[in-house]
Amino acid sequence: MLQSFLEQSAQDHPEKVALVIDQKRYTYLELEQQSNRLAQALLQRGLERGDRVAIHLDNSLEAAVAIFAVLKAGGVFVMVNPTTKIDKLTYVLNNSRARVLIIPEKKQKNIVEHSDLLPHLKTAITVGTAAKSQEHNELQMPRFESWDQLQAEFAEHITPPAIPTISIDLAALVYTSGSTGNPKGVMLTHLNMTSAARSITTYLMNESSDIILNVLPLSFDYGLYQLLMAFRVSATLVLEKSFTYPHAVLQKIISERVTGFPLVPTMSAILLKMDLSKYDFTNLRYITNTGAALPTEHILTFRKQLPHVQIFSMYGLTECKRVSYLPLDQVDTRTDSVGIAMPDTEVFVVDDQGHRLPPEHVGELVVRGANVMQGYWESPEQTAERLKPAEIPGEMLLYTGDLFRMDREGYLYFVGRRDDIIKSRGEKVSPKEVENVLFTHEKISEAAVVGDPDPVLGQSIRAIVTLMPGEELAEKEVLAYCRKHLEDFMVPQKIEFRDELPKSPNGKIDKKQLTLP
């Protein structure tokens, strides 16, 4: 089971540093004991097997501990981006029917003000020096508990609870943007996640001597997997909150003797504008990517500037975590490829009727493996679009929605996406979700959101709007409104005003006329 990654490492290497955060170091034994205390607290507060627990925290000790505590208690963890605003948080909590929410103390007021809209939430655990448990009133929900006080109350409970968990039990719901505008909960079992972690650590050749630096949020699936993968092999994870200050991150790579550095293309574009020769990356063994394929020029430049560093070009999606990787001996010769199927996974390309295509033909990529999700939480129609029956009765295949071609040796080449999901800064952005926010502005009549090619962001977000008759609105006002209601990575880079938007014959906004060539 997924929690065994921490339990086994704590048993084999109790005094080894597992986590480095803000100059503080935590051993595997410390994390194991803290997660056991929280697991016992969750059970005592009424958590039942399969209940969902939402974790709305920044990259932190508490976030890491909470993940494993929920698993130990037999629950399902739901990571929520720390920048998520209350409206979307409310949607996720209600859609998942989360019983418990773990939040920073400063967000307690928000939850109190919206408690009437959260019928399923029974307990909120607050993290922070000022956090205090409140007097319990059976008629008031949720009950607010203090993280520190729970740790103190269950100080003697340092062994894991005896909760049966099997491999097909749900371990996590990972919410990802959908074409409907509302995020979809990707259902992942213990088997899905342990299989993906095993395959990725296999081809990355991770071992206990690795020191991995992670600046990706734990709410982002590959950020989450850095924690899982590190603990699987008893490595050390250096957890940073962001990539806001690139120089400081590079200095951390040096001071902590980091061997592995996962990034998204936006980060690589920033790094390659810096003079990397000023930094001593002697200990850095590999760089790996997520969010989108690394541009060919990025790979070539990294190879030139950091010849001793292994560059792993990969492709994946939340619905199965990882699909393919480019073997190291092919990086210089097949730089534009995202590689071959990762260990214990099969991939192939099909036409519109689902028939397998021969090499060099373009079609939709299909994935088969133990890492493939169970479906979207309570969304059978959307699930049916992605999971379709295989040739073997009872087996389901993942249709990625992405167009690829495969060469005769089985190497994959990304062609394009079937849908219009925007990939910006390594994050997936639903145009519909941004449009829904724009539509709530009283002065905006119509809105369309598209992605434009961008050498740094991958795609930049452009919103095209029309105004209500007689209204005036400045770009900065629209951007401020978006920042108030959207996560940072969803805020458009540009607002374009038009008198009218192009329409298709059936009256829908024709985005093809709005996209750049």
Strand content: 25-35%
Helix proportion: 25-40%
As laid out across the biggest beta sheet, the strand order is 7-6-5-3-4-8-9-20
The largest β sheet comes out as:
8 strands, mixed
Radius of gyration over C-alpha positions, nearest whole angstrom: 23 Å
The tally of helices reads 14
Oligomer, anyone? single chain
Provide mean pLDDT, rounded. 92
Number of strands: 28
Distance separating the two termini: 48 Å
Stretches where pLDDT falls below 50 for ≥5 residues? none
The shape is globular
The class by helix and strand makeup works out as alpha/beta
In short:
This protein has 517 residues and is α/β, with parallel strands linked by helices.
Explain this structure.
The chain is α/β, with parallel strands linked by helices and 517 residues long. It is built from 14 helices and 28 strands. The strands form seven sheets. It has an eight-stranded mixed sheet with strand order 7-6-5-3-4-8-9-20, sandwiched between helices. Strands 18, 19, 21, 22 and 23 form a five-stranded antiparallel sheet that branches. A four-stranded mixed sheet has the order 2-1-11-10. Helix 1 runs parallel beside helix 8 (221-232), helix 2 packs across helix 3 and helix 2 (28-44) crosses helix 6. The protein starts with a helix and ends in a 20-residue tail after the last strand.
Entry keywords:
alpha/beta; five-stranded antiparallel sheet; eight-stranded mixed sheet; single chain; globular; 517 residues
Please render the helix and strand layout as text.
Elements: H1 4-12, E1 17-21, E2 24-27, H2 28-44, E3 52-55, H3 61-72, E4 76-79, H4 86-96, E5 100-104, H5 108-113, E6 123-127, E7 143-146, H6 147-153, E8 170-176, E9 184-189, H7 190-204, E10 211-214, H8 221-232, E11 236-239, H9 246-255, E12 260-263, H10 265-271, E13 286-289, H11 296-305, E14 310-312, E15 314-315, E16 324-325, E17 340-341, E18 345-350, E19 362-369, E20 375-376, H12 380-386, E21 387-389, E22 396-406, E23 412-417, E24 422-424, E25 427-429, H13 431-439, E26 444-454, E27 458-467, H14 475-485, E28 494-497
Parallel strand pairs: 1-11, 3-4, 3-5, 4-8, 5-6, 6-7, 10-11, 12-13, 13-14, 27-28
Antiparallel strand pairs: 1-2, 8-9, 9-20, 15-16, 16-17, 18-19, 19-22, 21-22, 22-23, 24-25, 26-27
Helix pairs in contact: 1-2, 1-8, 2-3, 2-6, 7-8
